[in-house]
Structures are given as C-alpha cells and as structure tokens.
Amino acid sequence: MADDPLEKLRQLCLTLPDTTERLSHGEPTWFIGGKKTFVTYSDHHHDDRLAFWCAAAPGAQDVLVMSAPERFFVPPYVGHRDWLGVWLDVPVDWAEIADLVTDAYRMIAPKRLPTELDARD
Length: 121
Fold this sequence. Notes:
Aspartate Aminotransferase, domain 1; single chain
C-alpha cells in the first residue's frame, strides 16, 4: 500500500545497509546489524495516535519539538536519550522523514556503515 505510513517507513529503513526489521515491544522496529535499534513504529503509546520514534542528534529533539509540536514530540522511555517522536497522523513530508531516518541510522550505525551509505549515494 503506497499510502500506508508503516509501509513507507519500512521502505525507508530497509534501504539502509545492514538493516533488519522485527517486532520489539509489539511494534515493528528497525535494527542495524540485528542489534541496535534506530527507528521504532508506534501506534499504541499515544492514545491511538500514529507515530515513530528515532535516534536523533543531541539538541535536535529540543529544536524540533519546540518549533513544531504538532509534528514532533518527546517519546516515552527513550526521550531522555535524545530520541525524537514523529507524528504520522498529521500531514507528513516524506522527504523530511527520509532525512530523519537516515540521520537516526547515522547516529546508531558503526562508522563503516555510514561510509558505505555515502559511497552508495
């Protein structure tokens, strides 16, 4: 389904090197090397709102949540580690989401993988 946010998010995540998907805490989650989480889908933690959580650079969470709280939030459990929550039940800019997913990947991946990503791009 082209309009399904989960499918779009899945496509973005699985195009990145050494990425796998499996359920974690009942939600689709993407891992690097099968071990390190960089994105997790969420449709049950926020009063039936649709979102995903991703790793983010230090300071990015504060800037995005303060500038656009209708699109971004501090997720439970991982927000204290600078992770970013992104609402998917509002109008979504998928180019921006692709950048956030790639940035999350770069934050978590071992150094060799972003280098492979740069070489591929």
